[in-house]
Amino acid sequence: MQDISKILLTFVEFFLHYVWIANLFFIIVIIMIEKKNPLYTIFWIFLLTVIPYFGFFIYLFFGLTFKKKRVANKIYKLKKLRSRKNVSESDREELRRWKGLITYLEMSTDNYITSNNDIQLYFTGKEFFSNLKKEIANAKKFINMEYFIFQFDGIGKEIADLLIKKVNEGVEVNLIIDGVNL
C-alpha cells in the first residue's frame, strides 16, 4: 500500500512539474506571440502566475479564441487597408522605419494611421485660449469641442459667449463636456 502511495505521489509531483513548465511556456507565448491589448496580456500573465496549476487550463478555455482571432484579424486587415489608402506614397516611404511601432499602436489602440493631419503644440494656457478664441471667431460651418473640464470662470464665460454668438450666426456648435464640473 505504501508503494502505491509513493508511486502516486511521484506521479503527481512529476505531473505538477510538467504543468509548471507548460505554465511558463504559456506565459512566454502570451508575452511574445499574442498581439492583443497589453491589459489583456497582463491579465493572463497575472492569472497564470497566481494560479499556476489551473491558470493554463483557464487560458486554454477562455484565452485562446481561434474563431474570434480569425475574424478580428480580417477586420484589422480591412481597417489597415482602408487607412493605408489615406497615406500618400511619399509618406509610406517615410513611415517604413516606424512599421513596428505603427503596427503595435494600431493593434493595441484600434487607431489607424492617417495623413494630412496638423497639430499645434501650446506651452501656455494663455497661448492656447487666445488661439481657441480666434478659431471660434473664424468658424463658418461648425465647431466641435470636447473638454473634460469646462468652468464658467472668466475664460470659460468668454468662450461660452463666443459659442452662443456663433450659434446665432448659424454655425453648428457641438460641445461635449464632463458634467461633474457643471
TrEMBL record:
InterPro entries registered for this protein in UniProt: CLS_N (IPR027379)
Keywords of this entry: Cell membrane, Membrane, Transferase, Transmembrane, Transmembrane helix
Transmembrane segments annotated in the record for this chain: 7-33, 39-62
Localization in the cell: Cell membrane
Enzyme class, first EC level, given as a word: transferase
One family name in Pfam for this protein: PLDc_N
Domain called Cardiolipin synthase N-terminal: residue spans: 21-63
GO MF annotations in UniProt: transferase activity
Protein topology in the membrane: Multi-pass membrane protein
Entry EC no(s): 2.7.8.-
GO CC aspect terms: plasma membrane
PANTHER family (alphabetical): CARDIOLIPIN SYNTHASE, PHOSPHOLIPASE D
Name of the protein in question: Cardiolipin synthetase
Organism name: Fusobacterium animalis ATCC 51191
